[in-house]
Amino acid sequence: MSTPVVKFKSNPHSDIFTVLRKRVKAYFKEHNATPYANGNMVAKTIFMLTLYLVPYFLMISGLVSGVWGVLSMWTLMGLGMAGIGLSIMHDANHGSYSRNKHVNKALGLLINLLGGLRINWQIQHNTLHHSYTNIEGFDQDIINPLLRMSPDQKRKWFHKYQAFYAPLLYGIMTLYWTTTKDYEQIFKFDKMNLLHRYGLNKWTGLLHVTLVRIFYFGVFLVLPLLLVAAPWWVTLSGFVIMHVICGLLLALIFQTAHVIEETHFATPNDNGEVRQNWAIHQLKTTANFANDSRIFSWLIGGLNYQVEHHLFPNICHVHYREISKIVKATAKEYNVPYFQHKTWVRALGSHFGMLKKLGRVG
Question: Which end of the chain, C or N, has fewer beta carbons within 10 A?
């Protein structure tokens, strides 16, 4: 298996991204602002790390004990875990948190606190998902052996029920990630010739995964089992609850931006060509939601502005609200789609409606 390549062809709107970049650049110049993190982002970083780490230390120090006290701490950690993944780690691994690459790398390594491997995440998310959004066989975010998430995937009999069982799979997503997925991806990305870009081969990659696993499970499961003042089954249940909360939030925020009834799924021709401009491809395969809710947007790392994120992943998400005005107006000017749902609930309805449709239509 070789490194995946899809060629995006020019069309009458081929200059749209050039125009968008000029207008966004002009916005930052006009407002004398940096496209990187600001004070708002720093405050969010402190908040999310506090939400994840303080309950942990309260438990292992014995300051919080008992069944309900301990379970409530794990619940808060689940929210903090999702917050770190959706905002801090996400922006840092896109290189958009800071102009300083060392700051980005340090904050990107917070993924280790969540049980994941930074390099695997960057390959799956930055290289494959962002480059080949909603393209079957390339976008790793729509590949799941138990779900049909693209009309180009083969429908199996059990997909008829996927709208019902998908939340169960979403809930165990990060548990799968922290146990076996990273190992599977090392072998997969090695065959795809993608590891070498990050200075790894199969064996060094496996070593990195193993060291992260020893650290993560040692700190966030073994130590609590030994030190938390609660029965072992409470600690184990809390650990699972944390992952279920995080997995559901991550999946239901990312999937409602791409696998919905409105967005498109491109199919390359025999020459590996998608006959549309890359920026237009992103506009057709991505959607926003709940853009009027500032608090919700703050909590989920601005990822309700997925259109802006896919077009400008190198810009910190705290700027997406303002940039969206430029992107929406430019899309209208070029007569290309700009998908958005008024609320997250409506986006969820569209996502599960799409799962239902893909499960019943061949």
Answer: C
